[in-house]
């Protein structure tokens, strides 16, 4: 099996009811890449997969797979296979027949189907499970059968729509490594959809962060976590302290902003100019206690011990600030109510244009 590249050129998708689910998007996914699309519910992830697999036509732009324009090519004729959010195996067929299902329609004889199914089952580490019925397998094993079945038709591009969402947390984490392994062994291009940032960060070669029909940033996990390009990406991926302000001055790639916590400096990747409304983001693990740069007075609200880490929550001028430090035993006496000075290195903070933020888990739960 060999992967093919997938290119979206100005692809926009409006549904027949007039709702635009995907704004014009350019995306280049390399052959053999593990590429994730990460974003909240309803942002347009599945719609992009439907368009790549041929179940929905782009309203504008074009999609190329292996350099070939896919316009007018139906789902069955594309070099893609799709694994859905809620996969379904045929319960009355043994596992190997489930895997070989797509091959019968291609006129391949039973003996060859069985041999091919065996190869694929070995690939997903289920070589000795072919004669079982799906009901006799665990959730993670069934998921691997679904992957073997999708690979049976030798797709160049495998499209996976939240394939782990039905599994419990432990199994999901285990399957991350397995999926990654299967992808590397086959060389098939994987386009993996998830709203779970942990999944995207650990498995992917590159990630597209999507919000409200717009791809806001494409990059490696390090790039997206370390150098978010938008307020949404900074607030959706990982934890961040966010401080709103207005740019006073820019110099050497940095911006000085006026905030309720005083004047603060951070990197200025978007090239904001004086007067711009801005948001400064700094990760909890980049905050320092008693640090001179970007200093501010804050009151300790709460300390949560999380084994190797100590999570501290401070209050400062209407902001709640999270500080994560390694639990090396050097801060035994910090008690809630105490005043401390916090700070952070300018290089560890990023100043971005004001923009929509990701909603927190608490906000979503309150809906
Ligand atoms: N057939 C349709 N007709 C009209 N609107 C649709 C249709 N399918 C999806 N939408 C809308 O398009 C938007 C994007 O939907 P999509 O299924 O792509 O989201 P998603 O990112 O996959 O979300 P989730 O994580 O919940 O699966 C949503 O607002 C949805 O309501
Ligand atoms: Mg979806």
From TrEMBL:
<dbReference type="InterPro" id="IPR017871">
    <property type="entry name" value="ABC_transporter-like_CS"/>
</dbReference>
<dbReference type="GO" id="GO:0043190">
    <property type="term" value="C:ATP-binding cassette (ABC) transporter complex"/>
</dbReference>
<keyword id="KW-0067">ATP-binding</keyword>
<dbReference type="GO" id="GO:0015697">
    <property type="term" value="P:quaternary ammonium group transport"/>
</dbReference>
<dbReference type="Pfam" id="PF08402">
    <property type="entry name" value="TOBE_2"/>
</dbReference>
<dbReference type="GO" id="GO:0016887">
    <property type="term" value="F:ATP hydrolysis activity"/>
</dbReference>
<feature type="domain" description="ABC transporter">
    <location>
        <begin position="1"/>
        <end position="237"/>
    </location>
</feature>
<dbReference type="InterPro" id="IPR027417">
    <property type="entry name" value="P-loop_NTPase"/>
</dbReference>
<dbReference type="Pfam" id="PF00005">
    <property type="entry name" value="ABC_tran"/>
</dbReference>
<dbReference type="InterPro" id="IPR050093">
    <property type="entry name" value="ABC_SmlMolc_Importer"/>
</dbReference>
<dbReference type="InterPro" id="IPR003593">
    <property type="entry name" value="AAA+_ATPase"/>
</dbReference>
<keyword id="KW-0547">Nucleotide-binding</keyword>
<keyword id="KW-0813">Transport</keyword>
<protein>
    <submittedName>
        <fullName>Polyamine-transporting ATPase</fullName>
    </submittedName>
</protein>
<dbReference type="InterPro" id="IPR008995">
    <property type="entry name" value="Mo/tungstate-bd_C_term_dom"/>
</dbReference>
<dbReference type="GO" id="GO:0022857">
    <property type="term" value="F:transmembrane transporter activity"/>
</dbReference>
<dbReference type="InterPro" id="IPR013611">
    <property type="entry name" value="Transp-assoc_OB_typ2"/>
</dbReference>
<dbReference type="GO" id="GO:0005524">
    <property type="term" value="F:ATP binding"/>
</dbReference>
<dbReference type="InterPro" id="IPR003439">
    <property type="entry name" value="ABC_transporter-like_ATP-bd"/>
</dbReference>
